[in-house]
Amino acid sequence: MNRRDLQHVFIDDIVLTEYIAAINLTKIKEIMNVFVTGATGFIGSAIVQELINARHQVRGLARSDAGAKSLAAAGAEVHRGGLEDLDSLRSGSAASDGVIHTAFIHDFSKFEENCEIDRQAIEALGSALAGSDRPLIVTTGVGFLAPGQLATEDAVAPADSPIPRVSEQTALPMASKGVRASVLRLPPSVHGVGDHGFVPILIGLAREKGVSAYIGDGVNRWPAVHRLDAAHLYRLVLEKGSAGARYHGIADEGVPFREIAEVIGRRLNVPVVSKAPEEATNHFGWFVRFAGIDCPTSSKRTQEQLGWQPKQPGLVPDLDHTHYFERSR
User: Fold this and answer.
1) How far is CA 67 from the centre of its chain?
2) 160 Cβ partners below 8 Å, 6+ apart?
3) Which listed residue, 75, 215, 242, 248, has the most CB atoms within 10 A of its CB?
4) pLDDT over threshold 90, residue 6
């Protein structure tokens, strides 16, 4: 064997070693068939795209023809049903390698009723996974977790919370039944293009009232996260999360509410004003409870455990953007 032949053998060995390493890496990152509720929503649609980009297979819950069409266009399989169709939830969950539950009926006029619907939905999803060690990720919020304090992943929702949502209390005990159940807590503002949550409500109020308002000195803090950063975190929890764990999807630990009001006022060219607590209800209406919450929240442990690093713009620079103030939205 001459020198050139020896060189080829050496090079071929390197290529073969790298090829074997790539195969092993593929095995480590298992491709999963994931059932996603709320798959056509603001957050859920970003999760679907995140999962597909990571080469997972997605089955999304759709209750309408329009929702089914958008899921199919995104490259996901369509599973017809809704949150109150428990048989559909069980069958979708049973056929999956893991479940991400983001759906919730955000009608605050029937909030307690909708919390009960959510509880039954979570129980149905979890019952189909019992004994399998497959992941079930349930969504909840941090808004009333530890008012006035920096909430960590250790914080437990108070029994007397003004928001009677029991997603977390329903999901986590399933870890003892062989379900890799975990909770992903989201902040009051999950922002980005297409946002139709709390910030657009504030913009609508400012347009209607002719002023952008905050309560008192406006130093109460809202945590926030961009929807794409949140979607990435859902995938990390799916792939690496632990049973019984709580994770925080928080990028901004706490943005003073006054800063949010100031951006809205400048963008709409309306005065930015303080409302005394006794005046706040007249301005904010039913939203006053959320406008006044002070809920700074940490995601330090989540970031350390899962290697999650938010990369998208924070709330204030994202809010200071044309897409939030286009009338068509």
Assistant:
1) 19
2) none
3) 248
4) no
